């Protein structure tokens, strides 16, 4: 009997309103992209949560690995001078 | 078919390295897991986690998902007989929500490597449970109200703390579900209020429904703390945040004033306010009834599972037709496109939501083989 294992997994991204980017909402199974869109509408926008939906095959996502987390993100950790709060400005100086 | 996580693959390769280093790496992983839980941060799908943590979560999320879809049945029973178009539209929306909740939870379980078909097979074979509350019948229209008020009310009391569960995908699913459950509870309360303030017969019908659903709703919180086998470890892992009895007491305290406002009685002569404890006392629960329903001897156990199996079998042609259509219309793989880009041509890829296959295109192929 054919069942949902024949259906690939899709990641669903929803734009909640104009001016905002699409955000990951969850995943679902569907036989093709068109059905994935329709299922995503029924599953993730039953209460007008979206004005636009993307569906992406889960297999198309390339992710960083939690094992490499430290070495992968470390280069940013010792560069506080990338943040505005790193700099001391005399009291009273405005618009800076 | 279980999706093997990248972490599990790594563990296998570690087996070939010298034993001392493996033990150190293992200790590091356990320490990292414990620290994340202790810091109240979330465990995400590709993090290392103890096997028992994974198994506990899959069992709990599966049971939760099964409860959502079995829970569609007692209420769907009244859709065609709803007393007005307004009530009918509300009930259809609610039953559709329950299906959606099941889907969120199955997806969350899949992030841990469970396959949806396997979970459904276990449900159909009676090897995984659903909440015993759904083995009670909906005899009158007032039962739809009592389910919304009491059953969904108890579910919300249980589920709100799960929004802070240590496992990220489960917690996120619960946030979405809790928002939607609030409508379920309020529509039930409003329905009961209309009956309670209606004719004498309507009022009696509402009271009868509350009489029948009150005790089973209290049982939804599970066995008393001293008899709950999974509680302690689940609390340590922060999957569970409060004990069964604590949540049950909270629910009674919430319901007593709500029942008064409804003009209905809770069927327990022992309910009284205890000033000293600052909460309500209530009568003893008949746990033998709970055990009987769990064993399969509730009024509707047989009917619920039979209907679920039939729905699955009778829906097979739809799944087959959709798969056949997708295969027929799948874009021909072009030489330049990577194979994974055409979903219909890679039907076996079931890596789960938060578990994207791999970090590089090259290893993507490897993970697909293990998935």
From TrEMBL, chain A:
GO terms for molecular function: phenylacetyl-CoA 1,2-epoxidase activity. Pfam families: PaaB. Keywords: Oxidoreductase. Signal peptide: none annotated. Its EC number is 1.14.13.149. It is an enzyme of class 1 (oxidoreductase). This is 1,2-phenylacetyl-CoA epoxidase subunit B. The gene is paaB.
From TrEMBL, chain B:
Residues 332-341 have a biased composition (Pro residues). InterPro entries: Aromatic_CoA_ox/epox (IPR052703), Ferritin-like (IPR012347), Ferritin-like_SF (IPR009078), PaaA (IPR011881), PaaA_PaaC (IPR007814). It is an enzyme of class 1 (oxidoreductase). The keyword Membrane does not apply. Residues 342-358 have a biased composition (Low complexity). Its EC number is 1.14.13.149. This is 1,2-phenylacetyl-CoA epoxidase subunit A. It comes from Streptomyces californicus. The lineage of its organism: Bacteria, Bacillati, Actinomycetota, Actinomycetes, Kitasatosporales.
């Amino acid at each position: 009997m054919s069942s949902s294992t024949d259906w690939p997994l899709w990641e669903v991204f929803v734009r909640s309103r104009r001016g905002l980017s699409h955000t990951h909402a969850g995943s679902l199974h569907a036989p093709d992209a068109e059905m994935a869109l329709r299922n995503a509408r029924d599953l993730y926008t039953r209460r007008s949560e979206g004005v636009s939906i993307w569906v992406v095959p889960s297999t198309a996502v390339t992710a960083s690995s939690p094992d490499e987390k430290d070495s992968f993100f470390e280069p940013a950790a010792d560069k506080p001078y990338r943040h505005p709060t790193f700099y001391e400005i005399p009291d009273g100086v405005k618009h800076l | 078919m279980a999706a093997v996580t990248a972490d599990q693959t790594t563990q296998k390769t570690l087996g070939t390295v010298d034993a001392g280093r493996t033990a150190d790496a293992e200790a590091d992983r356990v320490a990292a897991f414990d620290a994340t839980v202790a810091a109240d941060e979330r465990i995400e799908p590709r993090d290392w986690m103890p096997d028992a943590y994974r198994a506990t979560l899959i069992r709990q999320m599966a049971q939760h998902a099964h409860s959502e879809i079995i829970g569609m049945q007692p209420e769907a029973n009244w859709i065609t007989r709803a007393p007005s178009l307004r009530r009918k539209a509300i009930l259809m929306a609610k039953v559709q929500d329950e299906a959606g909740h099941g889907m969120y939870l199955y997806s969350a379980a899949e992030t841990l490597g469970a396959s949806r078909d396997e979970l459904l097979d276990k449900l159909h074979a009676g090897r995984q449970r659903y909440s015993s509350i759904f083995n009670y019948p909906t005899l009158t229209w007032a039962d739809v109200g009592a389910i919304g008020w009491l059953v969904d009310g108890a579910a919300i009391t249980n589920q709100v703390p799960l929004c802070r569960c240590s496992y990220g995908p489960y917690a996120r699913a619960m946030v979405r579900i809790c928002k939607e459950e609030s409508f379920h509870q309020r529509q039930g309360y409003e329905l009961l209020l209309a009956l309670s303030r209606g004719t004498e017969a309507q009022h009696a019908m509402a009271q009868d429904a509350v009489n029948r659903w009150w005790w089973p709703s209290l049982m939804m919180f599970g066995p008393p703390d001293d008899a709950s086998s999974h509680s302690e470890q689940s609390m340590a892992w922060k999957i569970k945040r409060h004990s069964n009895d604590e949540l049950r007491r909270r629910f009674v305290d919430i319901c007593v004033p709500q029942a008064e406002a409804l003009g209905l009685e809770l069927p327990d002569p022992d309910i009284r306010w205890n000033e000293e404890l600052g909460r309500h006392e209530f009568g003893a629960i008949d746990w033998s009834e709970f055990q009987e329903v769990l064993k399969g001897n509730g009024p509707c156990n047989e009917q619920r599972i039979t209907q679920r199996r039939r729905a699955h079998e009778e829906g097979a042609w739809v799944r087959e037709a959709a798969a056949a259509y997708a295969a027929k219309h799948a874009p021909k793989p072009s030489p330049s496109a990577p194979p994974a880009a055409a979903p219909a041509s890679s039907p076996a890829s079931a890596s789960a939501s938060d578990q994207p296959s791999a970090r590089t295109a090259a290893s993507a192929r490897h993970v697909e083989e293990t998935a």
